């Protein structure tokens, strides 16, 4: 089911993915708005502001990419790098569950300053994007080198090298203060201190019927003999429709992606009303962890007997805390060993 936007609602919907298409320009995409879901994730761990912004961007990007899955599977974004934030993990489990966590050096984050950007915090390393349909044979992973770029450019690089689909991504994160600015009094999700985190993003891809029209003009030309240059006239030229679509998306300002008074429909209408934009049924998003006692037991079963003894605390219990949701699991070592022994006998 789809409809052409003619009179967009000004009332935004949080925690939702809105697919869209601009048929005259041969582009399709999605807009995501994260409110209570991302606020829960970021406030649960009390991340410093720069880390919260970085993880909010990663969550928005993961939802944009993971929501394209047409099956019950999982999309994971993970970074490993040498920056102040050395690891980020975001899981999106189709069709609507997201969880996220980040590991960081508090001292280095403080040295970087409160306005440190994503690229500065990540540093150098790699970003892996994994699609998991539930078995080793159905896993696909694309890896992008992190060389001082942020999540937007890393996503562009991923699509250039892995999918070769012309793609544009925009991401934004903001901390909303109740009673301040244009977002005053508009959020249904507030906290005792009047602050709440919001994240938003837009992904747009050029998908014409003709494959020739979709050729990327910025693909590397290959290994040319030394001293030779690729002639301009021999370079693939970007399609006029894609150039126009990119130019329109480039006008998006960060606040438009996170302002609760600017709905996803209104944003798309602002961008594409002259061409006509169609939207499809929105999909909800919720913060939800995958951890459970059964999963924790499965992890502990993979430990050696010596490793299991080493994780017993001074109180004689095994305590394991989920890095995503902070839920604490208190296990009796005797029960753990009995379950393992029972499983081996079976």
TrEMBL record:
It comes from Methylobacterium aquaticum. One of its GO terms (biological process) is protein refolding. SUPFAM superfamilies: Hsp33 domain, HSP33 redox switch-like. It holds the Pfam family HSP33. NCBIfam families: PRK01402.1. One of its GO terms (cellular component) is cytoplasm. It comes from the Bacteria. GO terms for molecular function: protein folding chaperone; unfolded protein binding. The lineage of its organism: Bacteria, Pseudomonadati, Pseudomonadota, Alphaproteobacteria, Hyphomicrobiales. The keyword Protease does not apply. The keyword Cytoplasm applies. This is Hsp33-like chaperonin. Keywords: Chaperone, Cytoplasm, Disulfide bond, Redox-active center, Zinc. CDD domains: Hsp33.
């Amino acid at each position: 089911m789809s409809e052409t936007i003619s009179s967009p609602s000004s009332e935004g919907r949080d925690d939702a993915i809105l697919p869209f298409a601009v048929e005259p320009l041969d582009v399709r995409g999605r807009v995501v708005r994260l409110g209570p879901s991302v606020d829960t994730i970021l406030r649960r761990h009390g991340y410093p502001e720069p880390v919260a912004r970085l993880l909010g961007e990663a969550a928005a990007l993961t939802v944009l990419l993971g929501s394209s899955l047409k099956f019950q599977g999982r999309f994971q974004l993970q970074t490993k790098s040498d920056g102040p934030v050395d690891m980020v993990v975001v899981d999106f489990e189709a069709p609507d569950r997201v969880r996220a966590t980040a590991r960081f050096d508090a001292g280095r984050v403080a040295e970087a300053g409160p306005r440190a950007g994503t690229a500065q915090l990540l540093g150098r390393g790699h970003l892996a994007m994994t699609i998991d349909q539930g078995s080793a044979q159905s896993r696909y992973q694309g890896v992008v080198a992190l060389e001082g770029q942020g999540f937007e450019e890393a996503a562009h690089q991923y699509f250039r090298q892995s999918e070769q689909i012309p793609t544009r991504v925009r991401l934004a994160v903001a901390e909303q203060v109740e009673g301040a600015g244009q977002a005053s009094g508009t959020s249904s999700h507030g906290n005792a201190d009047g602050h709440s985190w919001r994240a938003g993003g837009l992904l747009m891809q050029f998908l014409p019927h003709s494959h020739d029209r979709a050729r990327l003009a910025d693909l590397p030309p290959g290994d040319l003999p030394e001293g030779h240059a690729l002639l301009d006239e021999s370079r693939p030229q970007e399609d006029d429709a894609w150039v126009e679509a990119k130019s329109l998306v480039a006008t998006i300002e960060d606040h438009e992606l996170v302002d609760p008074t600017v709905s996803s429909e209104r944003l798309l209408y602002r961008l594409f009303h002259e061409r006509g934009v169609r939207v499809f049924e929105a999909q909800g998003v919720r913060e939800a962890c995958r951890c459970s006692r059964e999963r924790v037991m499965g992890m502990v079963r993979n430990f050696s007997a010596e490793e299991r003894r080493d994780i017993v605390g001074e109180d004689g219990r095994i305590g394991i805390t989920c890095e995503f949701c902070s839920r604490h699991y208190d296990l009796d070592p005797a029960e753990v060993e009995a379950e393992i022994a029972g499983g081996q006998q079976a």
